[in-house]
Design a protein that fits this description.
The protein has nine helices and five strands; from the N terminus they run H-H-H-H-H-E-E-E-H-E-H-H-E-H. By secondary structure, it is of the alpha+beta class. The longest helix has about 40 residues.
């Protein structure tokens, strides 16, 4: 068997970085799609439309008017719609609309959890914009300066207008940075989907939000009516850009 080229290890590390960068975009768009589906759920709930579909109808044929309205909306717009619709079910709003028998109602404490969820989604959107709109290049640190850690990084540069003309911010992103972002985006999507479960049923999946490996391995779906579980899970999500 022939020896591998000397730079094979570095090439594989580069591919790992490219893969993680690409996965970030996939994770983000999956999050936005979950938000879009949650908006449809909230609109249906607002008009008391039951979520019962004929068995012989495909998903693409369901909620078509709403999908037409939302299909070309930007991420920023969808995030605003999502927050606005959630707050349509605040106790204060329901009281002002004289909706005393709403199937969903958020108290003040739960409103704070919604605000926290919204802020985390804004953080994800800001991070996505910086990553997508930056200029990237491969950065290789000489091994004599970095003998223990991965010496391959992505160098990011993003221009901006400053008081005296042009400036830019830059940062080095390692594979571990993208792995962390991707893990946090997955967690944030879980939060959005669990909020949708709460909207529909008034319950959350304890095993999922507590990350209890034993319960998850047994595929047990223990449910709770305490939205505070979602708040604790959100605290694990940072999504802070490095530049």
């Amino acid at each position: 068997m022939e020896d591998l080229p000397k730079n094979t290890e570095d090439t594989l590390r580069e591919w790992d970085l490219f893969h993680a960068y690409g996965k970030f975009n996939i994770e983000y768009e999956s999050l936005i799609d979950s938000i879009r589906e949650s908006i449809i759920c909230l609109v249906r709930l607002s008009y008391d439309i039951k979520e019962e579909y004929p068995e012989d109808i495909s998903e693409s044929m369901v909620d078509r008017p709403l999908k037409i309205i939302l299909s070309e909306a930007t991420s920023a717009s969808l995030i605003k719609y999502y927050k606005g619709l959630l707050f349509e079910f605040s106790e204060e709003t329901l009281l002002s609309l004289n909706k005393k028998e709403s199937v969903l109602s958020f108290n003040k404490k739960e409103e704070e959890i919604i605000k926290k969820l919204y802020q985390k989604i804004l953080n994800a959107n800001e991070l996505r914009n910086k990553i997508i709109h930056s200029t990237w290049s491969m950065w290789k640190i000489p091994k004599i300066f970095n003998t223990k850690e991965n010496n391959i990084s992505l160098f990011s540069k993003m221009g901006k207008v400053v008081a005296d003309g042009y400036g830019y911010k830059s940062a080095l992103y390692k594979l571990s940075d993208f792995d962390t972002y991707n893990d946090e985006l997955e967690k944030l999507e879980i939060c959005v989907n669990e909020m949708k479960r709460f909207i529909r049923t008034g319950k959350l999946n304890i095993a999922l939000l507590s990350e209890n490996k034993e319960l998850l391995s047994e595929n047990q779906e223990l449910l709770s009516e305490n939205l505070e579980l979602l708040s604790e899970y959100l605290d694990k999500i940072i999504l802070k850009p490095k530049h």
